[in-house]
Amino acid sequence: MELVKLKSGSILEEKEGYSRIVALDNWIFMSLTAGRDYKTRAMPGTAIEQARQAMKNVEGALEAVGSSLADVVRRRIFIPRQEDVPEVMAYMGEKFRGISPASCVNCGPLGGPEYLFEIEITAYRGAGALPVKNLSISL
């Protein structure tokens, strides 16, 4: 078994002592990921553009450890302004349609006023290739 710790270029990873991804066996745990372009340090000014950039960051990090969005089993989404929720969640619906991970949306404050979207991912390498048993219940 191997423990993989992936850095993505965020200056906070070194400053605050964490990894973008920690992968243990087939489990992949991704830290809270913002919509900043880690190469240029640019941060878009809208929640939807931050969501798009964050998903590029997520997909690139997953690919680096031999995974993809298809393997995502849980997502936690943080959108501090409730008025941004409908547009951002419509985009998330497009990105995760057919994958359908467990999900949580939180509208609390983030680390600074410039952060309008962040996402945290848990994935299991190979989950996207497994047969799926879909169940429905009425609660």
Going by helix content, strand content and strand pairing, the class is: alpha+beta
Number of helices: 3
Q: What spatial order of strands do you see in the largest sheet?
A: 1-2-3-6-4-5
The biggest beta sheet reads:
6 strands, mixed
* Beta strand count: 6
Average pLDDT, to the nearest integer? 96
Shape: globular
Could you explain how this protein is built, in words?
With 139 residues, the protein is α+β, with helices and mostly antiparallel strands. The protein contains 3 helices and 6 strands; from the N terminus they run βαββαβαββ. α2 (47-64) packs parallel to α3 (85-96). The longest helix is centred in the middle third of the chain and has 18 residues, at 47-64. The radius of gyration is 15 Å and the shape is globular. The protein starts with a strand and ends in a 15-residue tail after the last strand.
